[in-house]
Design goal:
heterodimer, A: 6-stranded mixed beta sheet, 5-stranded antiparallel beta sheet, 0% helix, B: mainly beta, 7-stranded mixed beta sheet, 4-stranded antiparallel beta sheet, 11 strands
C-alpha cells in the first residue's frame, strides 16, 4: 500500500500571513505529483501537476516545489486571504494512471 | 457547460439494500474514477475505467460494482456486501495523456 502523507492536518492563520505545507510520497516509480484545492461544498480543483525533479510552479500567490529524489513537495501561499480557506490535497501518480491522495491540509484564514 | 455531474447530492438507504450512485460527464474524457472519503482519511480509489466496457479495481473495491457501457457514464453500485457504506463518494474523469482530473461535487451516502 502506497502512503501519501500531508502535514499539518490543519492550519489556522491570520490574513496576510504566509504559510506552507508538505506532501510526502514514495520516491520510487514516480510519474507525477498533483495539488488540488477543495473548497467546502465544491469539487476539488486542480492547482498544479508537477513531473520533474526540481519543478517549481506558480499561480498568483500560490506556488509549489517538487523533490522526487527525497519524495516531497511543498505548497506555499504568500499573503493568505480568507478566500484561500480550503482543504489542499496532494496526489501521487505512479506510471499506472492511478492517483493516490493524501488526507489533505485544511487551511483556515481569519480576517 | 462541460462538466461532471453526480447525483443525488445526498442519499439515504436502509442497511442491506443496494444503491447506485450516478456519475455523468460531457467532457469527452476517456478515463473515469470513483473515490471514497471518510473522516480523517484521504480519497481512496474504489474503481476506475480507462475506456468503455473496461474497468479496474482500485484499492477498496470490495462491496462495490461498476459498469462503463457509455463513455459519458460510470455508475457505482454500493452493494449490501459493503460493510461500511456510509461515506462521501467522489467521481472524477480525465483525458488520456492529460494528468489533470476533474471532479464532481460528490454524493454523501448514509446507510441507516
Amino acid at each position: 500500500i502506497l502512503n501519501v502523507e500531508q502535514s499539518p492536518q490543519s492550519l489556522h492563520v491570520q490574513e496576510g500571513d504566509s504559510t506552507n505545507f508538505t506532501c510526502s510520497f514514495p520516491s520510487s516509480n514516480f510519474y507525477a505529483l498533483h495539488w488540488y484545492r477543495w473548497e467546502t461544498a465544491k469539487s476539488p480543483e486542480a492547482l498544479f501537476v508537477m513531473t520533474l525533479n526540481g519543478d517549481e510552479k506558480k499561480k498568483g500567490r500560490i506556488s509549489a516545489t517538487l523533490n522526487t529524489k527525497e519524495g516531497y513537495s511543498y505548497l506555499y501561499i504568500k499573503g493568505s486571504q480568507p478566500e484561500d480557506s480550503a482543504t489542499y490535497l496532494c496526489a501521487f501518480e505512479r506510471n499506472t494512471d492511478k492517483l493516490i491522495f493524501g488526507t489533505g491540509t485544511r487551511l483556515q484564514v481569519f480576517p | 457547460d462541460g462538466g461532471i455531474t453526480q447525483s443525488p447530492k445526498y442519499l439515504f438507504r436502509k442497511e442491506g439494500q443496494n444503491v447506485t450512485l450516478s456519475c455523468e460527464q460531457n467532457l469527452n474524457h476517456d478515463a473515469m474514477y470513483w473515490y471514497r472519503q471518510d473522516p480523517g482519511q484521504g480519497l481512496r480509489l474504489i474503481y476506475y475505467s480507462q475506456i468503455v466496457n473496461d474497468f479496474q479495481k482500485g484499492d477498496i473495491a470490495e462491496g462495490y460494482s461498476v459498469s462503463r457501457e457509455k463513455k459519458e457514464s460510470f455508475p457505482l453500485t454500493v452493494t449490501s456486501a459493503q460493510k461500511n457504506p456510509t461515506a462521501f463518494y467522489l467521481c472524477a474523469s480525465s483525458k488520456t495523456g492529460t494528468p489533470e482530473a476533474f471532479f464532481g461535487q460528490g454524493t454523501r451516502l448514509t446507510v441507516v
